[in-house]
Amino acid sequence: MAREFSKVGVVGLGTMGAGIVEVFARNGIDVVAVEVDEAAVEKGRGVLEHSTGRAVTRGKLTEEDQAALHARVQFTPSLDELADCQLVVEAVPEQLDLKKELFGKLDAIVGPDAILATNTSSLSVTEIAVATGNPKRVVGMHFFNPAPVLQFVEVIRTVVTEDEVFEDVKALAIRLGKQPVIVGDKAGFIANALLFGYLNHAVSMFESRYASREDIDAAMKLGCGYPMGPLALMDLIGLDTAYEILDTMYKQGRDRLHAPSPVIKQMVSAGLKGRKSGRGFYTYA
Ligand code: CAA
């Protein structure tokens, strides 16, 4: 019988994690939202409040529904609070060791029927899965940024993921208003495998002073009808995250297309991570 998801956990409340919390809570599911410490928890709460506030302003959410959404979320710095969740989605930074260590801990906390999902964009779901004692219940559940807005989820099936596990996650994605696709465990899955070569190319065009950031973005936005230009999108994704994704894809495929343009690392080192830090290719208020 298909699993009922009435209470889920999200670990990591950065750009993606906070958005994923919003998606679940908006669809009537109780969420345990976990970060490493109280300060990070408060930051995550702020991201959620900002996003739902924007949805209210734009007429996408009533104030009543916003209050109900927030009431469904329990913020905590303790992983132990995840014990009775039927699903936990991990959205911590794109570092394999960090994710493996976390999955080892989660495996010991949640019940035997719970599903463990990673929102990784490019790391091996299989490697993360084998850090647990039960890799059959581990799956990729890859949302897109901004998660409350974009209606698409990649469900990543490893060679050992149980059929019921990915079928249940696929059904959940539909309940969340997302179109799911099932993909194999290859760096970048579908969307990022296609997207990141293009983004990297745009950055190198900017880096070589071939064209200005505004003109590069205008070419793709106005000339090609994309919702935003590639450099603005890099800022939205976060340059630190984009670097990790490109680096992983390059190491796995050795395709020059994915060798991160040097300026990305330089900007990350200088703290220019995009919207999340107030400055990237553009400056944000
Ligand atoms: N809940 C529900 N709806 C919301 C919302 C929320 N929290 N916040 C905003 N919205 C709605 C707005 O009301 C608006 O809807 P309407 O157009 O019907 O009014 C819509 O979402 C867009 O919001 P905004 O008007 O505030 O912003 P925008 O029109 O400038 O669009 C954007 C912003 C959605 C980011 C759009 O530019 C876009 O889709 N860009 C491309 C993003 C993209 O490519 N993402 C993928 C990145 S790669 C990735 O995520 C994978 C990875 O692993 C890194």
UniProtKB/TrEMBL annotation:
<feature type="domain" description="3-hydroxyacyl-CoA dehydrogenase NAD binding">
    <location>
        <begin position="7"/>
        <end position="185"/>
    </location>
</feature>
<feature type="domain" description="3-hydroxyacyl-CoA dehydrogenase C-terminal">
    <location>
        <begin position="188"/>
        <end position="284"/>
    </location>
</feature>
<comment type="similarity">
    <text>Belongs to the 3-hydroxyacyl-CoA dehydrogenase family.</text>
</comment>
<protein>
    <submittedName>
        <fullName>3-hydroxyacyl-CoA dehydrogenase family protein</fullName>
    </submittedName>
</protein>
